[in-house]
Amino acid sequence: MDLHAFELIGTPMLAGKTVHVLGDGRFSRNLVAISDVAPIVLEALTSDRYRDKTIDVLGPQDMSDVEIIAFYEQRLSRTGRVRFLPKAALGPLSRLMRPFHAGVANLMRLPLELPLAQSAEDTPLPSVVGDSGLDTDPRLPPKSC
Predict the structure, then answer these.
(1) Is the pTM of this model over 0.70?
(2) 111 CB contacts (<8 Å, ≥6 apart)?
(3) Could you give the CA distance from residue 58 to residue 3 in angstroms, rounded to a whole number?
(4) 20 to 30 A from 26, CA-CA: which of 19, 61, 71, 143?
């Protein structure tokens, strides 16, 4: 999810462009940095430690698009340009998009199918993200970029 947060929100904000948000931007999901998951996957593939076990990989907290936007606004010391696509439009647009790109169509339906988490105003922004001991923040570009 670090790529989602950076590519779809961070990149346009850094460039001074408009961020497009599906729905009201308040549905939350767990952001996990690729660099936090990779060592776990490598160990699971090369060790018997995780044989026949389920591994739950979670970031330190759920975040919404609104919270990620607020993070960038705080860091950039400026208000971002944000355009919200109404939820009522997401279902029909998703059905129109499906023949052309099923992945994009599925993403457009997420705000309709996921439960609403607490609002961005109720959730303080973390000062440090990532509990793996690695210096990563899923809202910032991956170190490989």
Answers:
(1) no
(2) 22, 23, 24, 27, 87, 90
(3) 15
(4) 143
